[in-house]
Amino acid sequence: MAQLKGRSSAETRSAVLDLIRSSGTVSRSELAVLSGLTEATISKIVKALLDAQLVVEAGFADSTGGKRPILLSLNISARYAIGVLLDARTIVYVIADMSGTAVHHMTAEGYGKTPPPLVIKRIASDIQKLMRRAKLAPSDVLGIGVAAAGRLDADGGVLRRSRVAEDWEDFAIDAALHDATGMRVLLENDANSAALGEFWSSRMPATQDFAVLYMANGIGCGIVIDGALYRGASGNVGELGHMTVDINGPVCFCGRRGCLEPLAAPLAVVRRARADPELIRDIGVRETLDDETNVREDFAAIARGAVAGDERCRTLILDSARALAAALVSMVNLLDLDAVYLGGPGFADAAELYLDVLREALGHAFAREVHPVETRLSAVGIEAAALGAASVVLHRQLTPFRARKSSRPAGARVAVISQPSAI
């Protein structure tokens, strides 16, 4: 096999560490085979990883006739990462160990209409509380990852592009939170965060190319190719919600006609439900749209109705799923993906209905006779973006050779760094 060698010794070490992570347990001789490196080089790298306490010896493998080989595994409690999902309704915090598993979890009120500086101050206070609860010192934490909806601007920040959170437009979340905590902060799109969370927590090998379809208020997609986020020219890959699925469809808030979001997103489903006064009375949907932050509650009521057998609700959800399937099959045909996972709060209540439609549609993907496309719920769960935000830190700090492949374009603002790489 091709030799797994980075541009520097640090990158090569990180590549070997990634092999140990995805393998669970592995011997030195197996690492040599998997990496294409010599056993002498592997022994030197493993010694450095053991000295840094990033790897531990974890028993013995079965003997094949000689001395039983020692197994290695990730030292999951050596370092931790904090993930924050920044949302208008709820702010979710997680502390993840090095395997990408959440070991502490906390939820708090969302940012709502509160000015960003006050929200950042509250987030910093909540993080300190969570670290005290976990008995962690700042030196134990690699950094803070923040997942937020929106698109990246030319400077690498998040342009909120939200009709209900205009105060966050161009607000430098990463710099503000760094100033409030003194810790390294990395900012990422929520769908990209969910995809990296899937990669880390599932111990997924870098050979699997996949996407996480993420639905909250809108619809986005995080794509991982060769173990790295695929970002495109400006870091804005994955805007599945703005793929055209009906050229005669309704006008989208982006200015184009027939995008997926005004056909399939929770707001679109709720608006169609409001056209039926009897339905909204029966399931408790509000008659008017007072605040788009309440859309998810109304959508959840429709989804629960669909699962319970209400044919009116079921029709609404299936129409959404079919539009989603049309866009998703096009994306899978374009990228030839191995798998698609569903994540985000939009799939919390009617996931199986969506899965049935998507699986049937992906059964007709162009490469179906070559390989199937696995389709299932994210292993991380509906709060995938929060844990994924912590995984963004793990990915950047522990496997910089992969983070480099998916780095933002030249000229983009570099996230605040106050701690060196872990390896």
Automatic annotation (TrEMBL):
SUPFAM superfamilies listed in its UniProt record: Actin-like ATPase domain (SSF53067), Winged helix' DNA-binding domain (SSF46785)
PANTHER family registered for this protein in UniProt: BIFUNCTIONAL UDP-N-ACETYLGLUCOSAMINE 2-EPIMERASE_N-ACETYLMANNOSAMINE KINASE, ROK (REPRESSOR, ORF, KINASE) FAMILY
Organism: Gryllotalpicola reticulitermitis
Family that this chain belongs to: Belongs to the ROK (NagC/XylR) family.
Residues spanning the membrane: none
UniProt protein name: ROK family protein
InterPro entries in the cross-refs: ATPase_NBD, ROK, ROK_cs, WH-like_DNA-bd_sf, WH_DNA-bd_sf
